[in-house]
Write a structure and sequence with these properties.
Blueprint (H helix, E strand, L loop, with lengths): L1 H19 L1 E2 L4 E3 L5 E2 L21 E3 H15 L3 E7 L4 H10 L15 H4 L2 E8 L27 H16 L2 E4 L2 E7 L17
Family: Belongs to the peptidase M15D family.
GO molecular function, one term: zinc ion binding
Keywords: Cell wall biogenesis/degradation, Dipeptidase, Hydrolase, Metal-binding, Metalloprotease, Protease, Signal, Zinc
């Protein structure tokens, strides 16, 4: 029985994940029910001060979604889990963000190549304990300043360690960071067109 579980448990877990994912147009899948969400753009607690999404969802291209769930399982084995701030972002929302903050260091220009978020291969996130306490990364999400950069020298030892734990786990499963935002990771294979598919929100 032990040998059977060791051999087939990974396949069983993958099957459960596939069944739990809601398939959407353009190769996107919804994994919102499988991960901890704190989607700031569904609230006013974001740099625009406006509610941009009608609901909290994490939608990604399937290959990125599968990899992200592997990351989450990896961290759960260490006593942590991912807390998701943003996943796929419709292009119309990118245009609203650019209108508010047209700085390509922090917000991708929608009229050029757009954001990897618009293609469904990027995620904004942090780490939290299994009881929901966020780890201190030195700044809040969407802090547009040098303190959020990976090379910022003013972090405490614990903040540096927390960022390092996050970075190591994300890179292990194919997600790469960007220089200016500790929370942003793009999946290694992220080519494709920017999408404007609406988020799968059920509105009353």
């Amino acid at each position: 029985m032990v040998k059977f579980l060791a051999r087939y448990l990974p396949l069983l877990l993958l099957t459960v994940n596939c069944l739990a994912q809601q398939e959407l147009p353009d190769g996107l899948v919804d994994i919102s029910d499988q991960i901890s969400l704190d989607v700031r753009y569904a609230t006013t607690a974001n740099f625009t001060g406006e509610v941009l999404y009608p609901c909290q969802k994490c939608v990604l291209k399937k290959v990125a979604a599968d990899a992200l769930l592997e990351v989450n399982t990896y961290f759960e084995e260490q006593g942590f889990q991912l807390r998701i701030f943003d996943c796929y972002r419709p292009l119309d929302i990118q245009r609203l963000m650019w209108k508010v903050y047209p700085d390509p260091n922090y917000v991708a220009n929608p009229d050029k190549i757009g954001s990897v978020h618009n293609r469904g291969y990027a995620v904004d996130l942090t780490l939290e304990t299994l009881d929901g306490q966020a780890l201190d990364m030195g700044t809040d999400y969407d802090h547009f300043g040098p303190e959020a950069h990976w090379d910022y020298a003013g972090l405490s030892e614990s903040q540096q360690r927390n960022r390092g734990i996050l970075l190591e786990g994300m890179k292990r499963f194919g997600f790469n960071p960007i220089r200016t935002e500790w929370w942003h990771f793009s999946y290694k294979k992220n080519s494709g067109d920017a999408l404007n598919t609406p988020l799968p929100c059920k509105l009353d």
